[in-house]
Design the sequence.
C-alpha cells in the first residue's frame, strides 16, 4: 500500500510559450519536471494565435516525460492551469480557425492579442452594469470583445460552425475528460459571468442576457448560452464527474478514469499559492486579505482578495470566488513585463552579437549581460547606477491598470 509520500499528483501549467508539467507528492515536493515549447503565430503587431492541437500534443509529451519514472498506479489525480486564451471548437471538438484567411488549426486567440480594441470600445460605450465588475472598462484581452471581433470578421459559414467558446484551461479539461466543463475562474474573470447571487438578474444563472444582447451577441441568449458552455459551472479544483477518458489516457500514458480537477487560469493558480503561503512563522496568522500577490511572467498580475466587493476604477474585478472560494478578487497589472524585457533585448542592435558571445562562453544571454554590467560598473556602488540617465515608460502593449487604455505605447529615453 502506498504511503502519502508515494502518492503523486500531476500539475500541468500552460504558459504563453511553453507547457510545464510537474509530478508532486502530497507534501508538495516536486519529484520530476518536464517542459515543451508551444508555437505562437503573430500575423500582425496586435494579432497572436495558437493551435489547441499543438498545445495538447506538447502537453502530452511533457506529461509522458515527467511521469516516465513514476509508478503510475500511485498517481491520484491531474490538474490544469493555462493562460486565459480563447479557444473555439466545432460540434465535434475540432478546431475552427480564428484567422480571416482560415489558417489551418490556428483556433486560439492568445490572451495578449489586441485585435479587438474597437470591439472593446463598442462594449464600453453601452455603459452596462456588468462593466463595473471589470473596473469600469472591458479590455480587448477579455473574451467578449474577441468573440464580437470573430462575428464581424469570419465568414458566416465559419461563424455558424462554432459550437463552443472556451478558455484554454477549460479546453484542457475537455480534452482530458471528453466533456465541456466551465470553470468559475474563467467565466467570471474573462467572460463577464456574475458569480454571486446578488449580481444575477434571473436568480440562478450568472450569464446576464441584457449584456450579451446590448453588445450584439443575442444569439447566445437565444440558445441559453450553449455556445458559452451552458449554465453549469464548477469551482476550480472540484473533482469532475468524468475522470480521464480512454483517449486522453492513451495520449498521456496514464490510467483511464484518473481524477481530473476543474481548471484555473495560470495567474490565479499562482495567486492562490502566494495568498495562502506561510512565508514566515510570525506571519502564519496574518489575514489573507492583507496580502498582495504579484504573479510575474509574460505579463504581471497584482492580485488581492477581500470579504466584500471593492470597486476600483481601472482595476479588474471585483470577481466573486474566482481564485479563493467565497472571497472577492481584484486584479491590477501590466500586459507586457517579461515580454517587454524580451522585446528590449531582442530589438537592440547588439542582440546578435550578445547571443554569439554567450554561445562562445557557454552561458545564457542573461549571464552574459550580468557579466558585462559588473565589468562596466567598476567604481560604482551598484550596477543599477549605469542606467540613472535612462527612463522607461513601460506601456509598450497598452496600459492594463489603472489607466485601462490598450492603445498607449511605451518608450525608453536617455536624459542629458
Sequence:
Amino acid at each position: 500500500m502506498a504511503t502519502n509520500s508515494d502518492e503523486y499528483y500531476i500539475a500541468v501549467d500552460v504558459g504563453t510559450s511553453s507547457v510545464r508539467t510537474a509530478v508532486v507528492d502530497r507534501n508538495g515536493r516536486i519529484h520530476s519536471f518536464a517542459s515543451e515549447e508551444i508555437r505562437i503565430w503573430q500575423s500582425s503587431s496586435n494579432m497572436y494565435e495558437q493551435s489547441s492541437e499543438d498545445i495538447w500534443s506538447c502537453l502530452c509529451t511533457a506529461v509522458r516525460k515527467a511521469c516516465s519514472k513514476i509508478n503510475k498506479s500511485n498517481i491520484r489525480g491531474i490538474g490544469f492551469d493555462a493562460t486565459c486564451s480563447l479557444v473555439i471548437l466545432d460540434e465535434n471538438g475540432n478546431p475552427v480557425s480564428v484567422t480571416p484567411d482560415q489558417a489551418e488549426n490556428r483556433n486560439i486567440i492568445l490572451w495578449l492579442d489586441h485585435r479587438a480594441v474597437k470591439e472593446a470600445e463598442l462594449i464600453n460605450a453601452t455603459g452596462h452594469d456588468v462593466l463595473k465588475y471589470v473596473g469600469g472598462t472591458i479590455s480587448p484581452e477579455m473574451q467578449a470583445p474577441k468573440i464580437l471581433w470573430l462575428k464581424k470578421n469570419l465568414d458566416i459559414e465559419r461563424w455558424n460552425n462554432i459550437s463552443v467558446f472556451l478558455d484554454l484551461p477549460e479546453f484542457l479539461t475537455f480534452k482530458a475528460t471528453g466533456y465541456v466543463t466551465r470553470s468559475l475562474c474563467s467565466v467570471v474573470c474573462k467572460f463577464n459571468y456574475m458569480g454571486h447571487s446578488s449580481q444575477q438578474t434571473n436568480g440562478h444563472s450568472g450569464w446576464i442576457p441584457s449584456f450579451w444582447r446590448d453588445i450584439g451577441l443575442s444569439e447566445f441568449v437565444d440558445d441559453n448560452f450553449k455556445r458559452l458552455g451552458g449554465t453549469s459551472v464548477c469551482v476550480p479544483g472540484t473533482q469532475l464527474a468524468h475522470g480521464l477518458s480512454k483517449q486522453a489516457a492513451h495520449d498521456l500514458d496514464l490510467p483511464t478514469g484518473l481524477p481530473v480537477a476543474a481548471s484555473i487560469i495560470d495567474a490565479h493558480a499562482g495567486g492562490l499559492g502566494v495568498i495562502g503561503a506561510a512565508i514566515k512563522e510570525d506571519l502564519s496568522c496574518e489575514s489573507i486579505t492583507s496580502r498582495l500577490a504579484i504573479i510575474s511572467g509574460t505579463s504581471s498580475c497584482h492580485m488581492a482578495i477581500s470579504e466584500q466587493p471593492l470597486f476600483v476604477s481601472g482595476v479588474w474585478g471585483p470577481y466573486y470566488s474566482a481564485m479563493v472560494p467565497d472571497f472577492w478578487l481584484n486584479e491590477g497589472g501590466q500586459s507586457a513585463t517579461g515580454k517587454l524585457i524580451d522585446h528590449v533585448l531582442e530589438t537592440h542592435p547588439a542582440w546578435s552579437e550578445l547571443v554569439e558571445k554567450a554561445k562562445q562562453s557557454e552561458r545564457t544571454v542573461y549571464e552574459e549581460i550580468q557579466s558585462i554590467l559588473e565589468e562596466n560598473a567598476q567604481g560604482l556602488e551598484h550596477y543599477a547606477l549605469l542606467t540613472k540617465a535612462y527612463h522607461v515608460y513601460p506601456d509598450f502593449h497598452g496600459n492594463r491598470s489603472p489607466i485601462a487604455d490598450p492603445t498607449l505605447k511605451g518608450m525608453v529615453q536617455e536624459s542629458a
Summary: The longest strand covers residues 18-25. The chain has a mean pLDDT of 93. Residues 52-66 form the longest helix (15 residues). The chain has two domains: 8-267, 338-393.
